[in-house]
Amino acid sequence: MSAFQHRLHQIRRQIDTLKIFNDNVVEVSELTEFCVHFESGGRNFMLTVLLGLHFPNERPKLIISPIIQHHWVNPTTGEIESAPGLVNYSPHSDLGRVVQAIIREFERFPPQVIKSQSPNPTSNANSAQVNVSRAHHYPPLQMAKSLDSGTSSGASNSANSSKETSPHDPIKLTSPRINETSFPNLSTLSLDELKQLDNDPEFFDDFIEEMSVVQQLNEELDSMINQVENISKENETKETHLVELKRKLSDDVTTLKHLGEKCDELNKKYLKKTEEYNPQHIRELLQIAASNADSECERHVEQFLNSKIDVQTFLQNYTHSKKVSSERKAKEERLGQQLSALERAGI
């Protein structure tokens, strides 16, 4: 596929998206100019879509008629310049979606007309002249097609306009009126009041404040303020509760720390007692005690042999020490047998 055929394919795809996402699309000039008719606030508008020589690599040119007051629209030429879809336009954008978003904006918020073109018998001639003045942007063959299609479409547009602007429809035969949907109170003002509205800022502010739309917005704003205040109070209440929970948590942490220290201390005591009451340790203590008792018996014998004590005292002390030694040896022997049995049992 050649570069020309590829570009032609891209243009036709963009035109298809224009016709898919929008109603009342009229092709004025083949591949270069289209008109999209729509209604907003009880008034008919026409959005002209002009595709330049470098489209789709460059953004299309969109012109609204009649000219309206909107921050997207150039008030002199009616060209839509700052719509988000146009500002962010790229070769990958969909022309149909861009136009659809612009039309939806005007349908949701009916704009005020600041300049209109009253219908007259020479509208077709003016249309042809516009096409001729625009023809220098296109190659000679395309210019011929534009003029030819402009003439034929002028007739069809004239027929359509004759159907839409019947003699029994005074709205379309007279000059455009102020959009009563957006500014319902303007129709009740006199010429002097309108001049005062234009010249007196205070009167203008009072008029704006009395509008139902502004009053509704103020009511919504008051409602949102009350809602924010309620949420703020609720947050303050929760903050107090949160501080209380934080304080309680801090106390619990301190208590847990003390309990942990006490647990460590008791665990040390438990380990010490475990060592003290270990059967093997008890057996060793019994062996030491029996040995001490035997030493005591030998000391009593030595004292008696050295005539340091009499017979009665010797017998009494020796008998007692020997008895203690025998008891401790018996306990140690029995405990040793029990430990051996447990060891053989694998316990």
What does this structure look like?
This protein has a 4-stranded antiparallel β-sheet, sandwiched between helices. Mean pLDDT is 78; it is low at 116-181. Helix 10 (279-305) packs antiparallel against helix 11 (311-344). The chain contains 11 helices and 6 strands. The protein has helices at residues 3-21, 84-87, 95-108, 123-134, 140-164, 170-173, 191-199, 201-210, 212-276, 279-305, 311-344, and strands spanning 25-29, 33-40, 43-50, 61-65, 67-69, 112-115.
Structural class: alpha+beta
Tell me the Rg in angstroms: 53 Å
Provide the residue-averaged pLDDT.
78
Number of helices: 11
Spatial strand arrangement across the major sheet: 1-2-3-4
Portion of residues within helices: 55-70%
Main sheet properties:
4 strands, antiparallel
Unreliable runs: 116-181
Short description:
The chain has 347 residues and is α+β, with helices and mostly antiparallel strands. It has helices at 3-21, 84-87, 95-108, 123-134, 140-164, 170-173, 191-199, 201-210, 212-276, 279-305, 311-344, and strands spanning 25-29, 33-40, 43-50, 61-65, 67-69, 112-115. Helices cover 64% and strands 10% of the residues.
